[in-house]
Design brief:
The structure is a homotetramer of 352-residue chains. The first copy, chain A, is α/β, with parallel strands linked by helices. The first copy, chain A, has a seven-stranded parallel β-sheet, sandwiched between helices. Chain A starts with 6 loop residues before the first strand and ends in a 15-residue tail after the last helix. In chain A, 31% of the residues lie in helices and 20% in strands. The longest helix of chain A is centred in the middle third of the chain and has 15 residues, at 155-169. In chain A, a hairpin with a 4-residue loop joins strand 13 (299-306) and strand 14. The radius of gyration of chain A is 20 Å and the shape is globular. Chains in contact: A-B, A-C, A-D, B-C, B-D, C-D. Chains A, B, C, D: It comes from Lyngbya confervoides BDU141951. Chains A, B, C, D: GO terms for molecular function: N-acetyl-gamma-glutamyl-phosphate reductase activity. Chains A, B, C, D: This is N-acetyl-gamma-glutamyl-phosphate reductase.
């Protein structure tokens, strides 16, 4: 396929870990031409200054952000910026005919008041935000296929919601019982010069953070409520793990009906995900290790029922920068373009 | 203090990670003389063959296990052996006048039937086992002070029970609501040549294990039930973390009384642990990092109340080989001998 | 391309880390059909028992090793076995018309006496061994293209020889001055239950091993001598690093001619490797990080000249299981079949 | 011992990793009272804000740096500041009667021109600098015992010089042959918010830095030249290792006399270090692992002779923040006060 017939794609905010994943994935995608790399603080620098290992494959210079230039140059725009910036760009880009995939929190909420409360910032783009679709393909496949503004999910919500969705949709659990104990590698904190992300601080130690207050809580709750058909309030606790990539969400729910057995639940999951190539259900007694998902777009699910306590425990493992970020955005783009959902995405992680 | 006036102590099962901690701690303790090192597979080898870095401080040879010799040589015996072996030695050692600290599961249960069910092995030493005291000083200080057989707690139960005890004792929580999501470093698996403990398998990845079936569950439940004054069934899920040392238990409980605030709960913890030098309560908003406890006998507790969900979340961090094993055994020995609980135990971890 | 027109390939010794890399790479290669997985201790087990994350992509059962079956089923055979076993299989497989890629040390030496001395084992397959070609494509591209028995290099020799080759070939360095200080991740030790490979032993620590006696020394020396046209004796010291994958070789050589500058040397390297797509020369002042090569077949080279000491220092970074093992074997197979050297091999690592 | 009779000690620059080691060590030292903590950017903050795990043991507030106050409050001053600051403080403190231990590079050089060249900064305190003693006790024990200004060595020079000293002193090696390939954990980079020190950048990867230009080179060379009695120019290459603490220096030297055997060399080392309690010579075939030294002030030396190449290879392992920084400074203080060199310093590391 010649470059001229490929889909032109821009990345705005290319210098971070999410950006470099996108660059690598789009570079390798057979139907895509990467026509623009933009950034703020990194504008003017060659991309391989930031990531020398990518030379000579990605030799572009990062350009200052200019919406006119972007719209001229690209049909599809990925915004990989800090929260709060996309809302100032997406309306214009949409107007100019672009399809926008936003990787920040800006377009993840249907209820903008929730956003305003948890992100402590007022919104003026209500009508645009209402058009946005939550970019979790396994749950909103049809809507993504026709959307022009996709709010790509956060890494924790992806792992958590894929674990919970079949239970919520089928009404199997007591809604107030949900506890999500989530564990993330340090790359989730971004390529930022922060004290708590230093190797000497993170290495060989483990701690929780944002207890009762993490901003991914309302994001999970809003989608969970949609699935359950009623308001869900849940417990979400993130932890920082001494590893670079990966998320494991350990999800605890009390069953409504104590008569179900593990195989019943597994059958429900199988049915729910039968058309989802990136969800991999594990057989009985096998629990996922986050490294299994490295570099792939897979979500591994292990399911256990504790008959003593009446709880179902779901283990959900993803690569936080792939299914939790860039890989999922590309999966959504594949859907939006009518391509196969798996195109351009590696399916087997290397191991160990 | 001359050697002749020191307390003579034996370690049986000195070659593992628990053993080497004991060796190091007892070596440094001003009132103790280490008079015997015994082992099975390692018998005949010099201890510094196994741990060259301890030369020339510990130059003893590991002796084959001989109860007569032990009792002649030592007043106090630490048994650091795989589960199931202590029950064949403790009765004889007690008879010969020794004080026995067992680091295995053998003497942790008051209800031996629970042991028999979860450890799949019958017991014939019921009368001796009934005399054993659970060696968690913060909960059973008085009984340890006069006991001759102390069943030292497992690493997960220590972290979990110290997090739960004030809540259970004061009847503050709904008993069926307890979820313990625990995370351990790899040294908890011992110095054993096992595939799942290889660096290449553990590094940079995270997984759960033993869900709904881990043997520390009934141990936690038995003590929790004693504290609560009624039967407690709880959820316990351990995870293997890519770090060598440390345990973090994240404990979730639903409050009975929604009117309490965080400061009330903290006050209750302060009162409960006012005489416990090794429990360190953190101020509001500070959560412990496991590395803070490295090499010390401390248990750091961070406490949070989520008013949205009505749950109290307690973070409990220890060094699994210290407060979770050898350090705690030495703390119990200090108590038993009438010495200060902190004697011979480092109080400040190095950092980072 | 239909399966029937693909090249049939067997892997013998599929259960180890080298094996699983081959499985994954061959599975993804567009011109190859994986028709046989064999093993000794793992025979009879499903491959996804050993690596559950590969289900459902690789659902084969590992078969007991049977040379007749292999030759019937496959045109190309990869032997990924412990040293000493390939020599009993390769002669028969060659006779039956197979092309054999051996990943052990058995066919890496032209001088079998060297093998016999360093590997302490006599050889009876001298005539077959003489036909073997050393499978380092950058040095022996033409010979590999027509060989039927390829002795694939070890991981340390690959990193070391790619660093040294241009210097030796051009006669730029004092031959007795070569010091190779090499650092490897733990996966180089294989998927073996060994004490020194436990996470708790390897993590957060660093040590040298095999000083003056490591078996990769004579392998490097034999090829280096061929390149230099005279006998080379060098210093090689391997170290075990607390990381899973990657090798860095830091190579020190004293220059013969003190008048050369860094740019001269770089020009020589560029010319030497101008047809080698997997060698990536870094610009001045940039030194490779092993993670840059993860999952790819690349060798990154950074070159520095110290004018104070007259030494050239070459940094050579590879993924020990890719360019250092399975990836390189596949590169050699590509060459042997007349395909592009890069076919089926990922060129961009994910990062971080 | 009452506080009034203890030695009063100040730490200036307490917030970094070197500072916190000093705080911990001085806190635990039986003869020392920590009477002042000072800092620049951290002034006004409680020390336990920075290191919550030290509460309630260290509850001091960090004070703005005021030399008058320091001299009033303390007899001994540790300066743990970035390079270039001590030279503005030490002259005044000495004048006011303090004994000064500087942990920066400012007072490590006898030849200030070397400092000016490598640190690119002019010096105006020549007369004071001439009085300074290089604070490596194993080499300059007598001079430290009477000095008032001690320039404490860098971490790399400590490991390197202890490996080299007996060889240089005895004239056993070819002086131009020395290659030091050094490996350090990330804490050597300090508690600084720098991109290359992020966990996601450091983890699971390895790289060299500062090749041919690292500032520890002239520091090693100056002391090496003193020991050898003639000018030494050597090769020093540092590497960043994915671990928090520890340095391993692998030192290569060509022997002058090919007739010596390993045992001869070991005898020379034993004699050289017979009065040095912190140097631990390992038996034949045992090489040190950096973790052996964790938290202790020990330097482990393993020595190998390669008869094929005529090189002696010395492995030298220390904890970079202890023997490589704070521990060594305290050892020097012990010497200076006429106390036992080992006082207040842990001798056994915990393991693993």
């Amino acid at each position: 396929m010649g470059t001229e017939s490929k889909l032109s794609v821009a990345i705005v905010g290319a210098s971070g870990y999410g950006g470099v994943q996108l660059v690598r994935l789009l570079h390798a995608h057979p139907r895509i031409a990467l026509t623009y790399l933009g950034g703020n603080s990194s504008a003017g620098r060659s991309f391989t200054d930031l990531y020398p290992q990518l030379a000579p494959f990605v030799d572009q210079v990062i350009e200052p952000i200019d919406l006119d230039v972007i719209a001229e140059r690209a049909k599809v725009v990925f915004l990989a910026l800090p929260n709060g910036l996309a809302q100032g760009m997406a309306p214009t880009l949409l107007e100019k005919g672009c399809i926008v995939f936003d990787l920040s929190a800006d377009y993840r909420f249907r209820n903008l008041q929730t956003y305003e409360t948890w992100y402590k910032s007022a919104r003026s783009d209500h009508s645009v935000a209402q058009e946005a679709v939550y970019g979790l393909p396994e749950l909103f496949r049809d809507r993504i296929a026709t959307a022009n503004l996709i709010g790509c999910p956060g890494c924790y919500p992806t792992a958590s919601l894929l674990a919970l969705a079949p239970l919520l949709k089928q009404g199997l659990i007591q809604l107030e019982s949900v506890v999500i104990d989530a564990k993330s590698g340090t790359s989730g904190g971004g390529r930022q010069e922060k004290l708590h992300l230093l190797h000497s601080e993170c290495d060989n130690t483990l701690s929780a953070y944002g207890i009762a207050h993490h901003r991914h809580t309302p994001e999970i709750e809003e989608v969970a409520s949609t699935l359950a058909g009623q308001n869900v309030i849940l417990q979400f606790t993130p932890h920082l793990i001494p590893m670079t990539r990966g998320i494991l969400a350990t999800v605890y729910c009390t069953m409504r009906d104590p008569g179900l057995v593990r195989e019943d639940i597994l059958t429900i999951y199988r049915a729910f995900y039968r058309q989802s190539p990136w969800v991999r259900l594990l057989p009985s007694g096998i629990y996922p290790s986050t490294k299994w998902a490295w570099g792939t777009n897979a979500c591994y699910l292990g399911i256990e029922l504790d008959e003593r306590t009446g709880r179902v425990i779901v283990l959900s493992a993803i690569d936080n920068l792939m299914k939790g970020q860039a890989g999922q955005a590309l999966q959504a783009l594949n859907l939006r373009m009518g391509w196969d959902e798996t195109e351009g995405l590696p399916d087997l992680s290397f191991y160990p």
